[in-house]
Amino acid sequence: MTGESIIRRRRAERRLGHDRAIGLPTVVMLLSLATSAGHSPRSAVSWVARLSNAGGAVGVVARDFAAVDERLKLGASLDTAIIETGIVDTGSTSRGFDAPSASEIIRVLDVLRRAEHDGGSLQLQLEFLIRDLRRNRANALDEAAQRLTVSLLFPLVLCILPAFILLAIAPLLVEALRGLPT
Predict the structure, then answer these.
(1) Residue 114: what pLDDT?
(2) Statement: residue 95 has pLDDT above 60
(3) DSSP letter string over 23-87?
């Protein structure tokens, strides 16, 4: 693999992880809405999986849930569906799950799995999870803003700074050199 393809792959993985961090709180709110409307955890996963054609961060997370929903429709238990989709494997998988975003999705699916097995109240657990995921989303946005400042240094130094020197400092130097006695 060439160095350029490795860089592209890492950028794509980082972008995918960022999209998952941004979209997961919204998807968990939709799961909460579905379960409060009377859906079981399995049907809530299926309901969210229908959004897999949506664009943006919500679509990325919904496609992850669609992969789990496919296994559930084939009769797998929620535990088996999570393992078969490759979410548990934090290495490089065909689905592209990276460790931080995979662990957050696993937490959501684990809450649903426990609610399905135990029959306990799901709303309170989802509320805590939403709060935590929103905090993680804010951290992800802060990290992206910090990376932006670093990435803007290149155009600043190579484009704007030379233009400033040519437009502001060069005329002053020319005038100063003209004023020197010959």
Answers:
(1) 86
(2) no
(3) HHHHHHHHHHHHHHTT--HHHHHHHHHGGGG--HHHHHHHHHHHHHHHHHHTT--HHHHHHHTTS
